[in-house]
Amino acid sequence: MSSAQQNFNAGQAQAKTEANFQAAKDSASAAADRAQAAYNTTGQAREENKEEATGLLQQTGEQVKNMAQGAMDTVKHTLGMDKN
């Protein structure tokens, strides 16, 4: 094999290596973008679930408070303590 042919083959191998390296970088970058998007989506869903849970807890707390107030009023009425 001549020196010129060896240089040509080496140049082709280097070009192929660089193309493969660039393709790997592009794939890694795309994977990182997808991971970031998934993280953002998960964070947003987590925040929505947190707000929903907070609202549910507040609603449940109000219901318990109202039930306790009703029970207290019933006991006062039964004992005749509700009259002034």
Report the average pLDDT across residues.
86
**Helices and strands: which structural class?**
mainly alpha
Kindly provide the radius of gyration, computed on alpha-carbon positions and rounded to a whole number of angstroms. Answer: 36 Å
Task: Please identify the oligomeric state.
Answer: single chain
Question: What is the succession of H and E elements?
Answer: H
Shape: rod-shaped
Structural features, described:
Residues 1-15, 22-38 have a biased composition (Low complexity). With 84 residues, the protein is an all-alpha fold. It folds into 2 domains: 1-42; 49-83. The chain has one helix at 3-79. The longest helix has 77 residues, at 3-79.
Write a brief caption for the model:
With about 80 residues, the protein is an all-alpha fold.
